[in-house]
Amino acid sequence: MESIFHISNYVVKNQVKFVTCTFLRNAITWWNSHMKAVTQDVVYAMDWKTLKKMMTDKYCPMGEINKLEIELWNLKVKGTDVASYTLRFQELALMCGRMFHDESDEVEKYVGGLPDVIWGNVMSYQPKSMAKAIEFANDQMDQKGNYKKDCPKLKSGNRDNQRGNGNAPAKVYVVGNAGTNLDSNVVTGTFLLNNHYASILFDTGADMSFVSTTFSSLIDITPTTLDHYYDVELANGKIIRINTIIRGCTLNFLDHPFNINLMLVELGSFDVIVSMDWLAKHHAVIDCAKKIMRIPWGKETLIVHGDRGSRGSET
């Protein structure tokens, strides 16, 4: 209704008149009775906010409102369907206005229900209005979709993969391809892994985190053999099967340690590839334009610079 007021340029004093002219059946009967009881001058002197509360009290019992508030409180994106989430969020927010003291509370709740794949970026953007939050969230999903369509996603790792169940393979980079095939949502640089400098690719499109078989010899941790396999597609199209992992490795950013598990695979251009799952777990945000990565650490935010900057600084 507020949108109609805005589009039609209804002045405040005429808003109640316009709304009540649209009433039908029981609503018009209720309104005429109320107007008769308090006089026409009184009812048309009220503002839209007062009328909206009267309508809510009349036609939306508190028990039903409570149910809607619970639904809104638990509302989250299903899969990657941000459009449906946004529509339902807006519908519920109209009926559950008492949950939000101001728009910033509504924005915070909306962003909190977004999927991990874009949550960090939207949080970093710090939208000041619902319109900005929705616009940026949709832009982020579009970017992820455009990249993912060319980068097969590893389905849930399971033992059926050994029998060729059709799971899409994870994708990694090999010599000669990494420099030309990198998506914009990546940061590359040289950082410490278990006290050895490693060339690392942080990639929001990678399904798993990997370490090259060559570099793994520098890590003083005994690899573990899994009882199931993962199919991995190299950038040249070759698909290989891997089942060896090094658990408990330590990435070091600005003297801050981060735990990571790495699957062993043949890599050429990089020693390590860090996946979307690791980035999401640590709420890391990649700034594509500046080629930096922001990682929350307590009350601090670590700012990790890629190849275009230094080895890092923090704020």
Summarize the structure.
This is Reverse transcriptase domain-containing protein. Helix content is 40%, strand content 24%.
Helices and strands in order:
Blueprint: H1 2-8, H2 12-20, H3 25-38, H4 40-43, H5 48-59, H6 62-74, H7 82-95, H8 103-112, H9 116-125, H10 130-148, E1 170-171, H11 178-181, E2 186-193, E3 196-203, E4 210-212, H12 213-216, E5 224-233, E6 239-253, E7 256-265, E8 272-274, H13 276-281, E9 285-287, E10 292-297, E11 300-305, E12 313-314
Parallel strand pairs: 1-5, 3-8, 4-7
Antiparallel strand pairs: 2-3, 2-6, 4-8, 5-6, 6-7, 9-10, 10-11, 11-12
Could you walk me through the main structural features you see in this protein, from its secondary elements to its overall organization?
The chain has 315 residues and is α+β, with helices and mostly antiparallel strands. It folds into two domains: 2-147, no CATH class; 169-314, Cathepsin D, subunit A, domain 1 (Beta Barrel). 40% of the residues lie in helices and 24% in strands. A six-stranded mixed beta barrel has the order 2-3-8-4-7-6. Strands 9-10-11-12 form a four-stranded antiparallel sheet. α6 runs antiparallel to α7 (82-95) and α9 (116-125) crosses α10 (130-148). The longest helix has 19 residues, at 130-148. Residues 146-168, 173-183 and 309-315 have low confidence and may be disordered.
